[in-house]
Amino acid sequence: MGNIVSFTDSLIITVFGMGITFLALLSIAYIIEILRLAVNGKKKEEGKEEILEIESREAIKEAPKQTTDDKELVAVIAAAIASSLGVAIPQIRIKTIRRINTLSPAWSEAGRKEQITNRL
């Protein structure tokens, strides 16, 4: 009728098939890496670190230090905090208020602002 395949033969066939599949996937990964290097010219990780370092330096330089006492802004922030916590304004003690710089691009912030204004 047909050839009988033993258990060891089936294991050899399975391991051989898995090996060929692994080598094919590994070669595809190397081809993709070579194409990425050909298109970009340098590695991804190095570029990201430089961009983050440059953006953080620019954010530090661009952040002007405000020395004036802006009581209206403090009142608005205190009212917002009191409203969200559900307590009275005299129960809140604000020690310092400082701006936190974001590393998101300007187009991202503009998109967020547009989404907020469209929902109003």
Description:
- The chain is mainly alpha-helical.
- Helix content is 68%, strand content 0%.
- The longest helix is centred in the first third of the chain and has 34 residues.
- The N and C termini lie far apart (77 Å).
- The relative contact order is 0.05.
- The mean pLDDT is 79.
Element layout with pairings:
Blueprint: H1 7-40, H2 44-62, H3 71-85, H4 106-119
* Structural class assignment: mainly alpha
Specify the overall morphology: elongated
The proportion of residues forming helix, as a percent range, comes to 55-70%
The tally of helices reads: 4
Would you report the number of β strands?
0
Q: What's the gyration radius in Å?
A: 30 Å
Proportion of residues in extended strands: under 5%
What series of H and E elements makes up the topology?
HHHH
**What low-confidence regions span 5 or more consecutive residues with pLDDT below 50?**
none
Report how far the terminal alpha carbons are from each other. 77 Å
- Mean of the pLDDT scores? 79
* Largest sheet composition: none
Summarize the structure.
By secondary structure, the protein is mainly α. Helices cover about 70% and strands about 0% of the residues.
